[in-house]
Amino acid sequence: MANSPMEEKKATPATSTADVWRSFRNEFDRLADRFSPDLVWPTFPRAFGDRPSFSRRSSVSPATPAMDVTEDADAYKLTAELPGMNEQEIEIALSDGTLTLTGHKQQEKEHKDKNYYLSEREYGSFKRRFMLPDGIDLDKVTANFAKGVLTITLPKKPEAKAVSRKVQVKVSG
Asked: What CATH code is carried by the domain that includes residue 144?
C-alpha cells in the first residue's frame, strides 16, 4: 500500500545539532581520558553553551577524582571529590594558561588479632590539567578544602565578566 500524503506519520523525538555534538564530545572525552587522563584537553568553554562535567570516574583510573566545573557571572569553580585525602597530599599549579591538580594518596592499615594478622596498603596518584579561558584573574585564584571536597575558585577579570543590556525592538514600516 502506497503512502498517501495525508497519512499520519509517527512522531520521532527531535535531536538538536547541539545534542549530537554534546554527545560526540562526551564520548570523545571519555575515550581520551581512558587512554591518557594526563593529556591537556581544552575544557573551557565547550560548544553550544555546554557546561562541562568531569564526573567520569568510571572511565579513568580509580585514583582520578570526580570533578565538576561551573561558571557564574563572577568566576569559574572547579570542585574535586578527594575523600580520605588531606591538604598536604594535594598540589595546585597555574602555568602557561593551564591549571594542574595533582595528588598522591598512601594509606596503610594494620590489624592484629590472636587468630589473624591483616595488613592493607592503598595508594594512588592522579594529575588533571585544565586549559583556562582568557580573562581569569590569576592573582585572585583561591582553593578551599573541606570534608574531602576541594573547591578552586577562578575569578574573572572585570573586563571578562558578561555585560548585558536590553536592546529595544523597533517596528519598521
From this structure: 2.60.40.790
